[in-house]
Batch of 2 targets.
Target 1
Amino acid sequence: MWQATEDVLESIAIGAGILGTGGGGNPYIGQLRARQAIKKWGPVTVLTPEELPDDARVVCVGGIGAPTVGIEKVRDLQSYHALRAIEDYTGERATALISNEIGGSNSVEPLIPAARAGLPVVDADGMGRAFPEFQMKTFFVYGVPCCPMAVADEKGNSAIVRETINPAWAERLARALTIQMGCVACYAVAPMTSEQVRRTAVPNTLSLARDLGDAVKQARDDGDDPLAAILSVCPGKVLFTGKVVDVDRRTTAGFARGTLTIDGLESCSGSRMVIEFQNENLIARRDGEIVCTVPDLICAVATDLGEPVTTELMRYGLRVTILGFPAPELWISPEGLAVAGPQAFGYETDYVRLSV
Amino acid sequence: MWQATEDVLESIAIGAGILGTGGGGNPYIGQLRARQAIKKWGPVTVLTPEELPDDARVVCVGGIGAPTVGIEKVRDLQSYHALRAIEDYTGERATALISNEIGGSNSVEPLIPAARAGLPVVDADGMGRAFPEFQMKTFFVYGVPCCPMAVADEKGNSAIVRETINPAWAERLARALTIQMGCVACYAVAPMTSEQVRRTAVPNTLSLARDLGDAVKQARDDGDDPLAAILSVCPGKVLFTGKVVDVDRRTTAGFARGTLTIDGLESCSGSRMVIEFQNENLIARRDGEIVCTVPDLICAVATDLGEPVTTELMRYGLRVTILGFPAPELWISPEGLAVAGPQAFGYETDYVRLSV
């Protein structure tokens, strides 16, 4: 058990930016929003899945939409409205909240309604990274129903996706509502049990994000290499280093989609990396050859300071290093890969786990 | 009180086709679906608003989407699923159903869930015609809340539009869900009271549709003029007669939108009428001059047989007569015109009531 105070938010934002693989919503904006909520309503208790009471009712909350829009659009208490809407629909009160994805601003999204409602959050999430689509959560892969779920905007509109024939249809209907709501909204899923959280969530990811951020900050303070600090906390490898020479990004169908091209520097000089993204980085090719795919993590950080660079802020001229991390174990089962492997995103390649 | 049996469906389809002003869903398809339901589960009792028990809970059900799609897409028991979804959400059981609009297939849509559930329907509706958008109902103009409402498809997906800041947002979210569901879905609105029905519905419209159809059939049998028969039942006037020379129709944003051009014949020879539609006919211009606008009814019927011609079946070469009817009184108040007058559809013209 620990307290999410204003002091830890900067570290979480750095770590969640790295784990977000480009997406999950802008972590700086998320940090500001969480800071405001904690300043107003006080710190939030963070419980491990084991520390949850056995009879807990755990609601997963998150933002949905295009990160490009999320950096501009007011969100206010969207996720609190979504929480109240799903409580109202199910007739059950949440006793704890959990992040849908540890990547980007969604890592701290639950802190806002948790601070407002005086609830704890769970040190875990439904991805162990970020993914672009609602149904891509370990919860749903391992049998938690994806519906009913509530979608709410900041204006006072809310809807319930009540029942769908499969999780992809929940994504489809929620995305259509989100687009109407201005391309960014928040959602809340019907409560899970503690048993479901312990069995299906990726554990200890909020503290992992915090520890990653702490390590980066410490390395900067000490004049050490922040990239080495990241890899010491989270086992992974450097995939590429270079300069961004092209970003082809469009906000379409409720996502930020596109391609990032990096020309190699230093040890990668003469090579080129091309990364395709849908909010998150999906596949990295070096000189045409696939070197990493979903569900493994493809993370861009500024080469000098280890600062994560998300999809919506990527731009020409940035010096970035691309890090790769193997996906959480829950994703590499056949059921997990069916939902978030390369083929789930339309790539014909098979998943080959990144060796580190 | 009367019984909606298989025998009355053909007349209702003709009358509802006329009152549909081009839209409301294909009346022939609606008739076939209602016939199947009544054959399977028996006739449906039709009550006037006054005959409703004072404690009745009346659910408005209807189809939503593009009529062009509605003639092809399977609907099955969509409206029954929507009914059950809103009952489940509100915790209240419907004791009667009411049509959202008397035009087109929506006139008989409530008969299907009513037959299935053994409920009566009310001889009234929320438009006294057809309109393209969800919020364009007399119910909502006069204070009935438009939410919560349920949207369901034939596959097993359903959603609740729970709360919106105004009725236009309910249309916006329901339309987005409908498009995902395949451009045709069904909805059900939270129950109304008998007092609300009596005060805000356009009364006696199901019997009006039946009487219109009966008159057309009788005239055909007797070798009389079916157009004169229509005007004897429903006061209105002939606006134009001619041959369809162009139909510019596209299915877009969940509607069938376009323009219909008719070259005059007989007394209209040398003139041209152009009608713009959004599912329904919105504005009729003769040689550039506006002769009729919403909320008044602009209805196209085949000149020879008085058969209504809906938007999705309109085609080059048809001989049609355009009839105009003044809108129900509930629409011509300032509140009514704000929702369904010409300016609500983006036309700058003021409403001038059709004189008959």
Target 2
Amino acid sequence: MQDNKPDVKESLERVGVAGLKTIVMTNWKGRRYNFVPEIDLTLDLDKERKGVHMSRLVESITECIECEVVIRHGSLEAVERDILDMLRKRHPFNNAEISMKTDIVIPKKTPVTEKTTMEAYGVEVKLMLDKGEYRKKLKVSVVGNTVCPHAMNNCEGKTHVQRAVGILEIETSYENEIDLEDMVDCVEDAFPSRVYTLLKSEDEKHIIEKMFKNPKFVEDVTRGILNNAKKRFGNAKVRAKTISEESIHRHNVVAEGSCDV
Amino acid sequence: MQDNKPDVKESLERVGVAGLKTIVMTNWKGRRYNFVPEIDLTLDLDKERKGVHMSRLVESITECIECEVVIRHGSLEAVERDILDMLRKRHPFNNAEISMKTDIVIPKKTPVTEKTTMEAYGVEVKLMLDKGEYRKKLKVSVVGNTVCPHAMNNCEGKTHVQRAVGILEIETSYENEIDLEDMVDCVEDAFPSRVYTLLKSEDEKHIIEKMFKNPKFVEDVTRGILNNAKKRFGNAKVRAKTISEESIHRHNVVAEGSCDV
Amino acid sequence: MQDNKPDVKESLERVGVAGLKTIVMTNWKGRRYNFVPEIDLTLDLDKERKGVHMSRLVESITECIECEVVIRHGSLEAVERDILDMLRKRHPFNNAEISMKTDIVIPKKTPVTEKTTMEAYGVEVKLMLDKGEYRKKLKVSVVGNTVCPHAMNNCEGKTHVQRAVGILEIETSYENEIDLEDMVDCVEDAFPSRVYTLLKSEDEKHIIEKMFKNPKFVEDVTRGILNNAKKRFGNAKVRAKTISEESIHRHNVVAEGSCDV
Amino acid sequence: MQDNKPDVKESLERVGVAGLKTIVMTNWKGRRYNFVPEIDLTLDLDKERKGVHMSRLVESITECIECEVVIRHGSLEAVERDILDMLRKRHPFNNAEISMKTDIVIPKKTPVTEKTTMEAYGVEVKLMLDKGEYRKKLKVSVVGNTVCPHAMNNCEGKTHVQRAVGILEIETSYENEIDLEDMVDCVEDAFPSRVYTLLKSEDEKHIIEKMFKNPKFVEDVTRGILNNAKKRFGNAKVRAKTISEESIHRHNVVAEGSCDV
């Protein structure tokens, strides 16, 4: 049925499965990670074919991750590359994309008391096969804050502070090795201060003093992320966005920019 | 089919439709409101009946709100009462519940420059018919902020500030007239400061100074909401909750309490 | 402060407010609409300027919609154009964008019993000012269904059916008048059958028979939307996506395509 | 500051942290699980105390899960019990609650071709310490489907089918050992058919035939869940809910019930 001619002859860009959850394990530089990502896997469809054989997409995912006694993959993009390579043997396509959206938890130390604290970050790793070439898009989403420099100036040192989310997206070749933790650092270093799950009173005091010495608009944070990415990475397209959940408004303020590095 | 005996004889507490969207209009004390609420409507089901005739629930809603040339209802609970009364003629039940979840937009003035600003609040109005008696639950969800008194003390007047959401829920008889705008006031007055969609520099300065003079934990805000509701309303069960979206943590902090008034 | 030079000199593409809710009214061909949309409004920022004056963006919105005794705008894009025109007098920019995301409720008749039923659709209207030229992006999101032709063939006429969401996006000039209701029709006509809020037994029977005579993959629905848009609209870029919430899987299947019309 | 007297003297029921994400590992009957749950941890607050020392709540969590070389806990409720026991040494309270919300992935076999397929379920495990006694609430959320028996009867064997979500909640003593996988089975067995991530054509045919032989209203599914729980578990309060994402409507239909077992 899927191989029949369709009634309407239009080629489609992305056909496949979305929101599929499963277990994925990686071994990144000696540290083992377990994920339950949401996976999207799509391919293009010729205008002469009615449909995609969806079960072959799912099989390419499940066979690739199944029963891993030895963890074979160093990164999420390496898992994805295996899935796309396996799919190519099962189903015709010109272009295909796979993305995995998950949380990564990194142990850190609190700034003054140096206690261990676990910090969670949203990540998305997408691999695209376009005319035989692999490109990847890596994205991290990091919680921090903004501290309004305008109000600080206007109110003798007092100001409004709020939670903000900084997002960094890097598009580059498959081969360009980029550590998600380095991307997280680029975002965290652009905020007035990093935030932590655990903070004792001394840590809290340290952070608040840092924030008030270092006030930043949402625009400053986005520019800082771009600048940090420029120093750290190469041969890539970089996009940054910051969303500030204003404490004096019901709405958010946002700043978005991009550059080549 | 619905009137058959079911295979498993268990009575059910709530059977019906959920997430139904439609237009509802009210005329509350001379001011006209247009809503597109999400409606849930459920009734109980006897253990001897297989199913509910769902289309009769939908008909009770649509006929009640259809083609209103003259707006007949003063409040959302009045619309709901008409729907339950209409349903009673169509379908047997002992208990039934209907709720409408929507936004209400109220024009306000900015605190210093006195410009008009439109402020949106989440509201939910639920009517329950339990053994022939109507009870209602009114809920408002209001954006504000918290300002940490502990950090202010610990950091020579500097502190962390963040957006917070205050929720007030009142359960009372159908007849007890309660204005959603008064409920919104109870919550807004419990924050270190109200927030506004529009703020010119002078307004912003005023608000920040108010916030720093009036630091509050999430616990203080919740207690303030309860206290304001005690002064304003009677013959009701009151529940309050505040969620503070911490600017120095990835997680939120919360405080919840209740009392009879 | 905003007019100072920033520490990092990067131009930004989109800086502004997001998720602002307010009341917007339109009069589209004699029928009055009341909306509470979520509004995003952003403009680009030169690399020599530290920040955007956010309150001027909010003022452009509030003054444009405030106290409308006579409803002056025929469409959401007309409201948006007025806001961008007002913003231009207040704040420098090269490019700006405004979008409104809301629900539209349209009265329809059930297919057999011809009862009135109210149907809600998600819409998003975006206006972009790029080098002095206005372009708009209109988007509708419509609930329908898919009926698997492969399973129908494989199981002697039985098959899996499920809710699906069809999305149509049209990018065109400001002047190209396009009715959101026509866009909704393009999507609804591409499903195996339309869905309705109210359905009496005869209506339900009619719809199910139509669905089983007209089985469609998610790919067929997307192609149908593109084809319907081709017949109805001109001078536009069209994008369609269908998301099928599979009743035999935990995940969704999707199909996405685009064409010029 | 937290130990001061508050301005408003109201005791609060639940004060604490919400939405905290971290890594939790368990070893349930020899099988190792890694989770990144969302954790809520709250305690009650006396009316004479201004605030809770929030960092002590976070410390109780982080110290309990930190650096587990040997996995010490068999279940999520065992982790939670350790956290509450640790919290009791750090902070006064009468009542406290902790919940963890996460995904659990279970390997299964497809029904005909017997291929391995990974299936994800939403789970929530809550432990409550109330007057010195531990009670737990276990909840699973499972995707399945409904198949309308009324339409099948009315349309000569054709009917509308749709995705549904079944929820089972069990409240019992801490000591009553209940396997989340058994709870998942109770829900899956109540649907017209289980659903699978991977389905080859023969599996799909098997499932569709099973669905059409076994049509069920949302009411039937909820009653089935209650009945399955009655047979499997004891000394508990059971609650079940089913949400059917109708393929012929924009809205959902729901059925909810409870019983003691």
